[in-house]
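job 3f2a | input accepted
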Amino acid sequence: MTQVLDSKSKNGPLSNSLDSAHPSVRIIKEKCAGCQECVTRCPVGALDMDPHKWVALADSSICVGCRQCERTCPYGAIHVAGPMIVGPSGPLNLYHPKGLIGDVTEIRQGFTSWDEAIAEANRCLDCPDPTCMLGCPAHNAIPDFIAAIRAKDLNAAHAVLEKTSMWPDACSRVCDWKTQCEGSCTWSLAGGEPVAIGRLERFITDQMAVKDIEVTSDAAKGITVAIVGAGPAGLSAATQLVKAGAAVTIYERDRNTGGVMSWGIPSYVLPDQIVDRPIESLIKAGVTLKTGVALGRDIHIEDLKKQYSAVILTHGASTPIKLPLPGVDLAGVEDATYFLTNAKSELAKEKPEAIYDGANVVVLGAGNTAMDVARSARRLGAKVIAIDWMKEEFAKVRPDEIQEARDEGVKVNFGNTVESIVGQNGVVAGVVIRTTTQKSASQLPRLTKEPGTTHHCDKVILAMGYRVEDLGEAKLPKLPHPPQKPKGPIPDRRWIGSGILNSPYTKVGNLALARESMLEDARLPISDGIWAAGDVLVGPSTVVSAMAQGREAARALIEALSSPKSKKK
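job 3f2a | predicted structure (569 res):
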């Protein structure tokens, strides 16, 4: 059914002439400029151009209601009504521990069969302008690896991911898909249920392991690079450099590699073998790893600049934020880093013990790190309450993390804050809790006039986030710094035209645009011969954002140093 309407049409919207169970498209001809944006972006070919009047034509009988045309029309000439024609997403397979104590079995299980994965892959529209790729910090070619799943071609799927990601087995587990790739899926932008991109990515790595790193070019042959930090940003940078033939040495302050993924993410969320895989592959490929070596203590920037062609700084934000609360120095108050490191070590034992059996633990914060702390404490036998001053609807935390924590017995109280920690004989005895109020996400919570209440506890764990430690290297510019806008017009036509910034249902477009700015920052050297990526550059970053920044810093370094004029050594 093809119909063109003007804004004064007596027939009204096209939806009146179709069954309400089917989507309908209304085109206002006096607004249509014939730019063909809708025609080129429609994934099902439901739009065409009238060759005589040169205005868009819509065939609602084949429209699926994705509303890409509505989002991308520069003139507001298209309106879509009715349902979205897409089946429900596949099952979310979760493991529910019968006995929580000591159980580190992975909670999120992923798709269990090809039938499940292909059914989910078939929900993808293979959009001509895939906004999911803009939403992915690494810019994975998502439609391509989904097409490979449809074809049951795991080699092709891995080849797609290899171009942009060195850690797809980890990212598919720890990424916040709802604010990244899945939040930018065309179904999600239309207010529907997105394609389960994260679980499809994981299915690929579950069915076939990520292969070892291989040298694929000689673009960086003869270049030597020192990388400071063996977290996601550093390992990603090293991967790009090794593929291009560079000689790489990684310096890591800790004895273990992987950064926050090693000490900060529990194995029931991210199994240890996945964390260990990239560094094992890099060492096989010839990377030199030096652990227990700290910048500013054991090595210094000027020395590294003399020894190597270039340096990439990728050390993370690992210093816990410590609030100036009364009682914060009492025995029994710990920071999240200390707790998670010890908890992971205890839970890794063959027979973990309930070392906090019956203890009352208060976690300050309800972000992703706080949920890791709370859930680990529950696995060690504690009774746990997590307290966060923000309203739940404004909190920067994955809703599924909160739900899983609550399912495991964690009490999560938003709209509250700890006013002070009280002790007895120098040991924690309780916390004084006050309620807060908050009107919007941009406004900080405020204390209400309600009096505080005392909650008895045996331990308080501070999990309000991390900051980057000042290493005292005078030759370095002050880091981290707020992301700078890339050169050129941002947002450019690619972003505006995609429609990712025009959805009333989500703010993922603005988040994606901010991450693009961070990638641009990572491409620019912070000083002569020195690049930076991840937490040290822009402050606390997600795993995938840090990984993408490390990749871009390495690519920029190779480009800058591979020409005869700029090559140092």
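job 3f2a | The first helix runs from residue 37 to 41.
job 3f2a | closed
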